Amino acid sequence: MSAKSKSFPSIVFAVLSSYGLAITVLSFLLLITFLGTLSQKDIGLLDSQRTYFDSWWLIHDLNIGGTLIPLPLPGGGLLMLVLFFNMLCGAVIRMRKGWRTVGNLISHLAIMFMLAAGFVSFLYKTEGAMPLYEGQSSDQYQSYHDRIIEIQKFDASGKGDDKALVIPMKHFADLDPGKARTFFSKDLPFEIQVTGYQRNANVAQAQEDDKTGIDGYRVQQVKNAKEDEANVTAVEITVKPKTGPEQKAILWERQFEPYTVKVGDASYVISISRMKWKLPFAIRLNDFVRELHPGTMKAKKFTSHVTKIVDGKEEPKVVTMNVPVRDQGYVVYQASFSEGSNGEQSVFTVVTNPSDQWPLWSCIAVAVGLIITFLQHLIRFLSRSLKTKAVI
Amino acid sequence: MKTFLLACLFLTTLVQAQLPDPALLRDKAIVATFQSLPIQEGGRIKPLDTYARFLLLRLHGKQSISVEHPQIPEVKKLTAIQWLLLSWFRPDIARDLPLFVVDNSQAVGEIGVDPKGLRDRYSWNEIVKGKEELIKRAQAYSELESDQLTGVQRNVIDLARNFFDYDAVSDFMTAARTDWPKEVSAILPPEVAKNMAGSNGVWDLAVKLGELIRNPEKMGALGDAPRSKLLELFINTTLRPGKTLSFIPPDDAKNDTWLQVEQTVTTLMKEGKLPESELRISKAKDALYAASLKTETFAQAVKAFVADVRAVAEKRGELKHVDREVSYHKNDFFTYALVWYLLGFLVAFISLVAPQTSLAKWSARIAWLSLLLAIGYNVYGITQRCIINERPPIATLYETLLFITGVVAIVGLFIERFTRQSIGLVVAGFVGALGMFAANRFMALDARDTMPTLEAVLITNFWLATHVTCINIGYAGAMLGSITSMVYVIYRLFVRGPQVIEFRRLLTRIVYGIVCFGVLFALVGTVLGGIWANDSWGRFWGWDPKENGALMIVLMGLIILHARLGGYIREIGLHALSLMLGAVTLFSWFGVNQLSIGLHSYGFTAGISLALNSGYSIKAIFMLICLGFWWQERAAKNALA
User: In which domain, by residue range, is A59 found?
Assistant: First the structure.
């Protein structure tokens, strides 16, 4: 069949299933992994991950003798997607099926499954911290990175429901000073305009002649910390009631009290904080044990003796390094600890990930597939060597 | 004048008579007994021998010290333990020895001491002249950000740390040497000193002083000046030197932290009492000095002291690997392995360059024997470490060097078994010698115990045995493939003849097989690492530099396999990419650690930049030569066409 007679779909299939595409994708993956690793020294892990690995494309500033040359590159997201289809077309659909290729087929399917696990994890995984002092319990964990603006109707009796209107970070993280976006809800008697997002900020007293100041304060930009957990986010908001004057305020992650605004007869509290998720059970920290190597400050083991509480029923559990507690799709890990004036605080990482155990199954399949392939090659190599020797 | 000189000689002899005989400190039985004294350091129980070795390595850059001293003219070299004993019992001699290695002599010049050459060594007595300036500068430099420090400033900081550490070590027996009644009488008012006059040694004095301290009225009546002088005397003679060694097993079986003299003496002063075994061992240490003044009593005293500590340690179940560790260091398995690997390489090389001759046949046999011996030493050494550490073979960067070298050598011999062309022997010998040399240099540069206690997250034998072992076998495969490709390049450059093409093809097949082997282990190891991370940190993949490094090896390996299968590369291309895989492996193995970021803490990599960059450069040069081969082949094809 001549090249001219090939249909467009078959050309696409040929490209998608080609070794050339596999090599190209793998080479770009290698390159962005290398560049993304080096960039972590300057921009930290989270930014590097978002720029190089969670993206469709990126611009890498190549430093050649002090001159920065912008180099457009495909991002990790795009490359992994193409790789998935490349394996599907080339190593599953196109490849000849037989005993000689069974190992390859298994290992490719397993790697596709692993990529799928990564994709599911990327979409649906939640991960956050739950710090607890001894005797304290909680059924919430909060994100390490995602911030939200939370608007809640104030109920002085404290008996009202705790429903809050939430503006997720993705809707305001692009609002640099000068950019603004207005949010509204049928449940709110006012609109809220957000502007001046600063990922890491301080709130300082404004100069007397500073017209940008709000109630005598202004948001001061601080250089982003490499560890995103250390950043303290701030935004400026303007509350616009349907009637009455507009009110401006600064929301800052570290402020002691949330901003309170009165509109009509009702009061609302507005704050910026980390995204929170609720667990279907509560955890109480009974005892935290920190073992050190004798005579040193080097940690040997962290162990948290906890109680899982569901509907008043209590169940003792132990969370320690490398041994998390899994329950109802949630996994509770011993992450770290801190020492404060209130005593020792155990910090748990809580994760829910539908594809939690997929990589394990995938790993077993990859290993089986590769061992079959490798043994086939080895046997072929050895028999060839023995034949050569016999000839000699 | 003659009378004066005779008087001086007599006085000197008299003074000498009050000091231990240095020859005693080199007595084989005494040294061996001291070597086996269990102590606690860095969170584990180890023999005093290990402590001495790594202390000397840190201060001096070697585990032995060359000596040229008028008081011990017959001695040319001291082992680490002999040097430590000399420092304890005869600091007057030890402080003259050229001990402190200083990379840049400017650092010494900065503190007002006459500089010598680069990486020269200075005695305590030389450095002490610039002590004040050393303190001042080290303090100032310590306040700077670590990445802003110049090499000289780092040297000053290191020198200060080493100097004061050694200062305390060499005072270890000062409390025992001190004439306490005399010193106390010179400080305290006569009526108070009278009560202390009968005190023998710091331990009796500590009890009486404790009583005094616990009585604020009496203590206050002493006045500020005597109080601070007394404190100063205690700090300099007892507390500061007493912090250098934890050799007293606690009486409380539940307490796993061994005690130092500083702690026992402080407890004695505060509480007026100590558990019997703690006081007995603390006192026995000082009694060693008095015993050392008489040749006939010293050996017995040392034996009794060490036996006492060992008995308590054994009762606590903490003595089990001490003797094995002494033997491990004494046998120096990896140096022997280095020698045999080197011999194997040289002999195998003869076999390679003179193929199909009787010389080649015999050389190959000798190389086999030599390399088997080398692997035996390598593997036995690793096994000893596993037993001592009670864990799988790899948990530190140093251990990766030992393990990967062993794996490469074993796979090299395996290849040789089937190819019989001496390639496997040459590669096994070369990598073996290089790996053992690198391990030796790494240990010297790091100058820390190579069997440290591990961070909490690493204390899991299952994952150390699976993920870490797998990934290191992957590294070994990649390095072996890369070095075999270097053999290919050298062979192609220098060897001509009819058999060349067949041999090159064989090399290519070997490299392809090794890359397959490496990718298998690197891929499985990397995924296992993800599963471990999922269990430890709640995420399978976190784009941490070390994880990325492992992924890069896998990606590079997959590129090679797919390029080969797709017909994009043949002989030269495979070797060029295999060399690149070697460079990627170097980056993953050592390079990412230099970024000093991420969750994987594999310790020290400072000072290896030069070696690492040389490694990258060599790979790059070989890749360029491959490019030249390709060009040449292309030109030849074009000419034919």
Answer: 3-124+360-391
Closest residue in A to B256 (Cα) is A294
| Dist. CA A154–CA A175, nearest whole Å | 27
Q: DSSP secondary-structure letter at A189?
A: S
- Judged by CB atoms closer than 8 Å, whether chains meet at B539 and A351 is answered as yes
What pLDDT does A217 receive? 87
Task: Tell me the pLDDT band of A367, cut-offs 50, 70 and 90.
Answer: confident
- Of A172, A187, A166, A200, nearest to A277 (Cα)? A166
Q: Which of B548, B560, B600, B616 to mutate to test the interface with A (most CBs of A within 10 A)?
A: B548
Low-confidence spans in chain B with pLDDT less than 70: 1-17, 197-200, 596-607
b/e per residue, B92-123, with b = 16+ CB within 10 A?
ebbbbbbbbbbbbbbbbebbebebeeeeebbe
Q: Which two tokens stand for residue B596?
A: 């000093």
| B contacts of A336 (beta carbons < 8 Å) | none
Residues in a beta bridge with A313: A310
Closest C-alpha to B327, from B590, B50, B110: B50
Pairing of strands A126-133, A137-153: antiparallel
Same domain, A109 and A135: no
Q: Vertex A245, ends A241 and A246: CA angle to 5°?
A: 65
Q: What is the predicted ipTM?
A: 0.85
Asked if residue B363 and residue B348 are part of one domain, the reply reads: yes
| pLDDT at res. A360 | 84
- CB contact under 8 Å between B543 and A53, yes or no, is yes
CA gap A253, B378 in Å, rounded: 57
- Domain presence at residue B11: no
Tell whether A354 lies on the interface with B, counting CB pairs under 8 A.
no
Contact A322 B460 (CB under 8 A): yes
A95 and A27 within one domain: yes
Is B549 within 8 Å of A294 when comparing Cβ atoms? Answer: no
- Find where tokens 């976190």 sit: B542
Token pair in block for residue A218: 């202004």
pLDDT the model gives residue A258: 86
Instruction: Specify the residue for token string 């305290």.
Output: B188
The boundaries of the domain holding residue B379 are 332-454
CB A324 within 8 A of CB A356: no
Residue type, B503: F
